[in-house]
Specification:
The protein has about 120 residues and is mostly beta strands. The protein has three helices and six strands; from the N terminus they run αβββαβαββ. Strands 1, 2, 3, 4, 5 and 6 form a six-stranded antiparallel sheet that branches. Its EC number is 5.2.1.8.
């Protein structure tokens, strides 16, 4: 008889991004693809906790459009689960961050990241 290979159940990408609320938002206003968002964030390497980047240090919120590949996939998947005003820790695996290439010399290849994200504003595009 032919051997059958057992594959693990598929995991959706949404399940791979952990969103842990630090401060609840309004609980009713969630961003949708195409919305313009304003956030503050701190990025850290998950394994060491080393801070890589911070919009707080620049004193300039980070703005982007959700769902149009302006940010890493893990951000699009995690932030859409946050409500307006929420502060959360996003844990993003390497495959939904910068993958095998890394980024800018500060993020090595195959590195899981954590982002402390504060969702400040949602504007329809």
């Amino acid at each position: 008889p032919l051997a059958t290979t057992q594959f693990p159940p598929e995991t959706s990408w949404m399940d791979e991004v952990e969103v842990r609320t630090v401060r609840p938002g309004d609980g009713i206003t969630f961003p949708k693809p195409g919305d313009k968002l304003m956030t503050h964030y701190i990025c850290r390497i998950r394994s060491t906790g080393q801070q890589i980047d911070s919009s707080y240090q620049r004193r300039l919120p980070f703005r982007f459009q959700l769902g149009v590949q302006q940010v890493i996939k893990g951000w699009d998947l995690g932030i859409c689960r946050m409500s307006l005003g929420e502060k959360a820790i996003l844990t993003i695996p390497a495959n939904l961050a910068y993958g095998q290439t890394g980024a800018g010399g500060s993020i090595p290849p195959d590195t899981d990241l954590t982002f402390e994200v504060e969702l400040l504003r949602i504007s329809a595009f």
